[in-house]
Design a protein that fits this description.
With 105 residues, this protein is mainly alpha-helical. The protein has 2 domains: 5-43, no CATH class; 61-96. The protein is 57% helix and 0% strand. It contains 6 helices and no strands. The radius of gyration is 25 Å and the shape is rod-shaped.
Amino acid sequence: MAYSIDFIRCAVAFKDNGHTFKELEEAFKIPAATCYAWKKKLKNGYNGEKVYRERNRKIDKEKLRQAVEEKPDAYLHELAQQFGCTVQAVFRMLKKLKITLKKKP
């Protein structure tokens, strides 16, 4: 069950004001371990939003897209050589970018 950031701050402030864990559990219906975890998160700058970080990849998505636009007839092994990786890596990145086989008009 996800709690709002306001609820989390309120519960941690309640405990910081000198109340016991038993009073915290009765008032907010959360165990002591949850309060400890929330306090740690708030101390580290948690603001209620998940942080999504993109991994560093060998193939830059925008550069690959630009390379395909410049030379749409390039083979996968040519693109792989250009980016210094394997053919499978280029194939998978093109699939993620939703660039598929050429279609006949």
